[in-house]
Amino acid sequence: MLSRLLIKNYALIDQLDIRPAKGLNILTGETGAGKSIILGALSLILGQRAEGKYFYNQERKCIIEGFFQLADYQLQSFFDEHDLDYDEETILRREISADGKSRAFVNDTPVTLTVLKALGERLIDIHSQHATLEINTEDFQLMTIDSVSKNTHLRTQYQSTYKQYKQTEQALHALEEEVKQAQTEADYHQFLFDELAAAKLNSGEQELLEQEQNQLSHAEEIKRALLQANFLLSEQEQPVISALKEALQQVQQVERYVPNLQEIAERLQSVFIEVKDLTEEISHIEQGILFDEERLTEINDRLSLIFQLQQKHHVSGIDELLVIQRDLENKLLKLSSNDDTLAKLKEKHTQLKDACENLAQELHNSRKQAIPYVQEAVIRVLREVGMPNSILQIDLVSTGQLRPSGTDNIQFRFSANKGQEPQPLNKVASGGELSRLMLAIKSLIAQTSALPTIIFDEIDTGISGEVALKVGNVLEDMAQYLQVIAITHLPQIASKGQTHYQVYKTEEQGLTRTHMRQLNPVERVTELAQLLSGSNPGDAAIQHAQELLKLK
């Protein structure tokens, strides 16, 4: 429940510290005093977006803090899920600067507005005139039945399974499309892969082949040049080798006379040996150079195949062709793997669908079973609040189509007048009738849900007199199950409150401010008397107020 609401610098509020009690809390005050402003401030810590125009002082930030007692409401799992510190007294805080920047906190941990709103929905239900419209929605109508049926766990289980089912369905459709596309290209990929695999390409092969091709193509020229070199070095009339040998011998004969000649002799010796080795190597290479036309043809054919593959795949080397070959192989392997994955995904999709359908059927059966009780309980309350001829008919049909809430279509049909056939709510109910119908439904939900607090803003729309007194009785009954805060203009409803607060305005130094204070028993009599007859109530109004408060 809400144990404290602290508001600083919001609209007409400079600072306000509100401490609602258990049971039924009543807020009264003149029109425009600021009752709705307090609700607006509260909505900010429930995740509503802020606007700068709501500031009392544009130079200071706005701070709203709500203190909630959570011990009885099993919210530990929510805090664990969102990595928040759980405390039996939890504080929701919102800070908004004048430039519109906003920060939200739960127990001093920064959170997003989405998280703040999700937590707020578990703590407070604000019912206003506009909220009455939600009674027409299928979500609200199913929530009503599920609350009475105590389907919270079953519905959570269904929604979790349904989420997995839809995720699997999405993955299945994506994989089916991928497999379809891959199968369309599979034959072509297989052809390309087979062609590359048959070529038996090797890294570095092209360079070696081109080198050998170049050598074979110029075999005669190479052989002629090497023979000429060999001739000059060793076979001509005065060969280089012979000349070097003779020069070496001449130097060796006189080296003992000239010290430097020994080094020259050694160098000539090295040159002679080197030239002799070169001559032998040239001769050896020359003998190995043969013109092999068959081999040249083989090399040309091989290079031609390599060039064709490179042009086909728009690459310039064998290594790039090998990369393409591996990619094609992986695609073909993945296609085979996808077939297995697809089969498993289809099986999982079927299992999840079956699980969803079974849970949806459980939900349907449970809802169907609860409908007579809901109809009877709502009608009973409506009779208590002055609608004795009301009929509520709830139609529930399973379509067999899986949706986030199950497979059910639901429609509340209503008639407030005798002899009138029940019709959809938006066709037959007035504003006052809808307010009382919503009150009847909320009073039923209050008995079965774990919602800590409910706030009624102008639940008294369209009613007065004895009906208002009966509405007050319903609110009083609801307050046995949860904290109820009711904003009202009717003394009959106000008299039912266990705690009564007055919202009022003052003017100080040219500024209007909204205040709120808890009334004592004497002040309550005066407040109710003013609600009955105006700002200057007479003795009759005061006596009537005392009677409403059951005071002697």
TrEMBL record:
<feature type="coiled-coil region">
    <location>
        <begin position="158"/>
        <end position="229"/>
    </location>
</feature>
<dbReference type="InterPro" id="IPR003395">
    <property type="entry name" value="RecF/RecN/SMC_N"/>
</dbReference>
<keyword id="KW-0227">DNA damage</keyword>
<keyword id="KW-0234">DNA repair</keyword>
<feature type="coiled-coil region">
    <location>
        <begin position="342"/>
        <end position="369"/>
    </location>
</feature>
<feature type="domain" description="RecF/RecN/SMC N-terminal">
    <location>
        <begin position="2"/>
        <end position="508"/>
    </location>
</feature>
<comment type="function">
    <text>May be involved in recombinational repair of damaged DNA.</text>
</comment>
<comment type="similarity">
    <text>Belongs to the RecN family.</text>
</comment>
<dbReference type="InterPro" id="IPR004604">
    <property type="entry name" value="DNA_recomb/repair_RecN"/>
</dbReference>
<keyword id="KW-0175">Coiled coil</keyword>
<protein>
    <recommendedName>
        <fullName>DNA repair protein RecN</fullName>
    </recommendedName>
</protein>
<dbReference type="Pfam" id="PF02463">
    <property type="entry name" value="SMC_N"/>
</dbReference>
<keyword id="KW-0067">ATP-binding</keyword>
<keyword id="KW-0547">Nucleotide-binding</keyword>
<dbReference type="InterPro" id="IPR027417">
    <property type="entry name" value="P-loop_NTPase"/>
</dbReference>
